[in-house]
Amino acid sequence: MQDNQWRNKKLKLDPGKMYEDISNFPDHLEEGNRIGRKAELPDLDVGGIQHVVVCGMGGSAIGADLVRSYLGGRLKIPMVICRHYGLPGFVGSNTLVIGSSYSGNTEETLTAIAAANDAGARIICITTGGKLEAMAAENSWNCVKIPPGMAPRAALAYSLVPLLVLMSRMGFVPGCDSDLERAASAARKRSEKYSIESEGNAAMELANRIYGRIPIVYAAQDHFDAVALRFKGQVCENSKQLAFANVYPEFNHNELVGWELYEPFVDKLIVLTLRDIDDHLRITSRMRIVHDLLSERKIEAIELVSDGDSLLSRMLSLIQLGDFASFYLAILNGIDPSPVRVIDYLKSALEKA
User: Fold this and answer.
1) What pLDDT, on the 0 to 100 scale, is given for residue 3?
2) Which of 76, 199, 253, 260 is catalytic?
3) What superfamily in CATH does domain 3-12+197-332 come from?
4) pTM of the predicted model as reported, rounded to 2 decimal places
């Protein structure tokens, strides 16, 4: 597709301005940092907190997943992401529970937060408003307000950065200020590199290679599991087509065997392996061996290597690539990336159930 065709189709197929939200990700990172710094902190004894649980779904939960992956071994207490109506049995007065719902009306999150309150947990909310903000006001919980008006998946920076800043300010992890600043600066350069006007656009090229296929995204478990999940989710939501994700080394112990009977689908599958300079040495070996196995079977496999001067920046580099590629893939599919009609239908049907 020629550059002018990309621009013309974008104008026609993107009335919800998903492209602008993806392009403005660096601004969102900086604003999210400011919001986190200004937010009122709860009065709690951090030393008495034994677990952190973040309750959220979809685009409101993936930011917490990224925080968990980024902090990795630096966080000295367990951090659990709860994507459900219920809570782990250990939740109690020594647990900090964070409710993350962009709309403030996500029924799973509201139910889980109510359960956290009943269990005596300490609660913080991150939301644009809705019922979650009302619950926070009624119960005198700290509530971090984030900007409304976007699809939750496009507001990733607002579910990620304020949470990370709060964790840092409360003393759960060492300061992350420098990493955040450098990551936002690098993200700005990538937004220019992947813009619709940019020549040699790697995100457009990736979209062209994925077009008409089902991408399967693989990454290392430790820091890039959530990046793979985000990549998969963006293809599903923005491009309106199936994608799947799994992690090393776990999938080597089960899913790998499924590649023995692939012939009927060989032209419809493409593997995207997310690589990082700090991948465990044995994971790097596994990735190389699996790449060779797939190549022998004539399955197209692409390695996408992270870029940046810090772990956070490298994680965000692949997120931006996936976000832009999923948008361009939506354009190739001839579809508006913003609506999620089947999710809207599901929520409507649940209200009637």
Assistant:
1) 67
2) 253
3) Glucose-6-phosphate isomerase like protein; domain 1 (3.40.50.10490)
4) 0.95
Mean pLDDT of 237-255: 98
| Given the residues 31, 108, 133, 237, the one annotated as active site | 237
Q: Which sequence spans correspond to the domains of the chain?
A: 3-12+197-332, 17-175
237 is catalytic: yes
Burial of 215 (0-12, 13-18, 19+ CB in 10 A): buried
Q: What is the CATH number of domain 17-175?
A: 3.40.50.10490
Mean pLDDT of 50-74: 94
- The string of pLDDT tens digits covering residues 10-33 is 778 999 999 999 999 999 999 999
Q: Which of 12, 38, 189, 347 is catalytic?
A: 347
The token pair at 139 is 């119960």
> What are the tens digits of pLDDT across the range 219-229?
999 999 999 99
Strands (E), the chain: 51-55, 79-82, 95-101, 122-127, 142-145, 214-220, 244-248, 269-275, 301-305
Which residues lie closer than 8 Å to 349 by C-beta, 6 or more apart?
Answer: none
The SS3 assignment for 105 reads coil
Count of C-beta atoms within a 10 Å radius of residue 230: 26
Q: How confident is the model at residue 159 (pLDDT cuts 50, 70, 90)?
A: very high
Instruction: Spell out the SS3 assignment of 33-92.
Output: HHHHHHCCCCCCCHHHCCEEEEECCCHHHHHHHHHHHHHHHHCCCCEEEECCCCCCCCCC
Establish whether 347 is a catalytic residue. Answer: yes
Give yes or no: 9 in active site.
no
